[in-house]
Amino acid sequence: MNKLKNVFYLYKLDWKRIFTNPIAAFLIIALMILPSLYAWFNIKALWDPYGNTSELPIAVYSADSGAEFEGTQIEIGDQVIDTLHDNTQLGWRFVDSKDELVEGVKSGEYYAGIYLPEDFSEDLISFTSGTIEKPTIDYYSNEKINAIAPKITSKGASSLQEEISQDFIETASSTLLKVFNEIGYDIDANLLSINKVKSMILDTDENLDTIDSYTKEIVSLHDKFPEIKDKIAKAEEFTDYIPEVDAMGEKLIALNDKMPTLKKEASIILTLQEKIPEIQNAGKQLSMIDDDFDDIASTMTDGIDTAKQGLQIIEQVQAALPEIEDLGNQAADFASATKDGAEQLQDALPSISSSVEVTIDAISQVATTTASLTNTINQALADNELTDDERTAISAVISDFQQNIQQQQTALDSLITFMNKIQEAGNNTDLQTIIDQLGNAKNLLGVLNNRLSSLDQLVQTGSIDDITAYLSQINAAAQDISNLLNGIDVASITNTIDDVLTKLITTITTAEDVLQKAQDIDFDTLLSSTKDVVSNAVSILEKYQKELPAIKQELHDADTMLNGHMDEIVAAINKGADLYNNELPIVEDKLGIAVDFLQNDWPTVKAEITSTMDMVDEKLPEVEKALDAAVDLINNDWPNIKSGIHKAADAIRKGESEVDLGEIIKLLKLDATEEAEFFKQPVDLETNEIYPIANNGSASTPFYTALCLWVGALLLSSVATTEYHLDKKDKQRFTKRETFVARMLTFLTMAIAQSLIVTLGNMFLLGVDVRNPVYSVFFALLVGLAFMMIVYVLAGLFGNLGKGIAIIILVLSISGGGGNYPIQVSGKFFQMINPLLPFTHAVNLLRESAGGIYWPNVTAPVIILVCIFLFFGIVGTIAYPYISEKSKKLSDVSKESHFFH
């Protein structure tokens, strides 16, 4: 909050200094207005550049001597001159000779000249004689006078050429169409008969190949007729097999009746498919047993050996039993002594607890001591460099810290050993959680120790950035240790040890009772019975051991059979299930269809076969006679008929490829006057204006507004300094970042003023056509703020170099920003940089408010300009304290030339 107060204090101080100095106030107001003048003058100059083309002088001279056509004198050149006298689109100047015209264009008196040669009319009507000569209009243009004028004058010459062409087309077409009208009505009277004959010939010709194939089939049929008669005779024998077909049909019907039972029995395959995972698992288990069988056999052998050793031990114990009884008496004395020691240790628990607490607290301070170490190193890194002495000193500090960690690890080892012994004495795991936590703490200390070694190596050989980044990892590791140890409750350790000792004392007391009971046990009898049991177990195990090879072979064979064919078994089950799910229903459906046919359709078919064979026997002689006649026609007359049809069709197609008779008749019968007018101007142009703009000045306003805002930012950065002047006392009070942001606010305030002045002046001084005036002001404010932020940060961070970069961006923006001309007509380089220029998005945004907003086109430029504003503002604010000194040194070097300030 204090930093914001400082920034706004400096911001107000800026404006107080400006308005207490008359010259500074005058300059600041001038800098607000001057960029707007740049935009206003350009917009006004381009307000209506094509409205005064009548002042462009274009020389015209016609040397046309005319021509005679059917007794009528035609003077096209004179008609053109008369037409131009009434034309005010351009400044026509009628000269007296071709030399005067050419000389005037050369001298620059005329922007262009149009000359009609002597044979212009004669060439124009040359088509009537059969020898066509296209007339020529000579056009002269002086392109060095102006870049745009030649385009306008060229358009005038083209318009003149078009007008002459249209008049010629209208006259010629009108005459021709009157003659064509009469011809069209004569042809139309006989069109029906012509089309009918034409269609018949063409259809026949198009199907000649098909007809030819039919003739071949007829000949082939004729050749095969004896064979067909033999087959028909055999077909008649089919009627003898009808009883057998009936019998087969009855079997199919019986099978169809049993299909539900078959489906039910086959459904077992689906149950088997569901058991596939269990089958596969059984295979895995069988394989596992097979693989581990040698281990099982080995384990059984070991068991037998162990049992035999047990027998030996039992025999040894029986031999040593008298000594054991004496040892039991001694154990009772030892238990009594141990009980006394445990009670004494329980009394010493407070001091033990205090020692544990001190040890854990000391080690848990590692985060604090590590933070102190990293702060020391950070202080050495504050100037972004390390001397050799600093590196040596830091290395010594790290070494001492590592020795301290090793001592802490030793203390933890002692504490863990003590708790393990307490736990072992109590024969329980009550302290295991705390022991694990202490073990983890020891391991984390080891991790911290290793990272300190890596840090030492970075200090000696690494970069400042690497060291700074690694310090955070050191602190994180130390904090992990601290968090772990702080989670240990020392009081619970004391209580747990107390419980362990209490249980131990209880256990010893119980042990004394057990020893007394043990002394009452008849161990000799117990050992003898145990020996008998173990001997029996050995006998049984040795019996099974002899069977192990046979069992192993059987297991292996089962494993090989099941797992060796598992894929085939699974595939077969899945295939069976697939057949049941997919194929069996199809078979069932087809069987049903077959049964339906046998029951419903077969009796009718059987009757038809019988009647058909009777009819074939009756009609066969007539068919044979017809085939003989057809083959005779095909062999003798068909080639000549086919050739004649083909020639006639080719002639018709050739005519159709050149002209469509129906369309020609329709065209010839149309009204000659209307058709002549159509040929003169076949297309009407209907213009639909989307987002209309009143004039060229209004259309150019977005470009020049954006340009003036960038120029305004450049002017301000050139006249005003980005450095904030403070007294020595105030320099200690305010940071560089605060002065940078305060001066940034002053520049941005100027951007707001420049944006408001230019946009309001566009609307109220020039009367620019703006469809969305409110958004026009808002968009201009956003553009002005974004441009000012870019230029200010570049100038603030890099001085004159940054201003140079801003000028380069301006130069590129004029060519590559797509302001006056579509970017698509520029070079590939400018098309490539177009989306990268802030100017592009600024002009696109301002155009929306000028012509009418299409909101999808507004979103992207607004987001981009806001992001540019925030990016440069944030980066400049963060980087200024680090870059300002270096850029100042660079500026001082340039000042040594005594040319740059």
From TrEMBL:
Residues 26-168, 674-876 form the ABC-2 type transporter transmembrane domain. Its main location: membrane. It comes from Candidatus Enterococcus testudinis. NCBIfam families: pip_yhgE_Cterm (TIGR03062), pip_yhgE_Nterm (TIGR03061). This is ABC-2 type transporter transmembrane domain-containing protein. It is found in: Membrane. InterPro entries: ABC2_TM (IPR013525), Phage_infect_YhgE_C (IPR017501), Phage_infect_YhgE_N (IPR017500), T7SS_ABC-Transporter (IPR051328). Keywords: Membrane, Transmembrane, Transmembrane helix. One of its GO terms (cellular component) is membrane. GO terms for molecular function: ABC-type transporter activity. The chain crosses the membrane at residues 21-41, 703-724, 745-768, 774-798, 805-823, 862-883. Pfam families: ABC2_membrane_3 (PF12698). It is a multi-pass membrane protein. The keyword Glycosyltransferase does not apply.
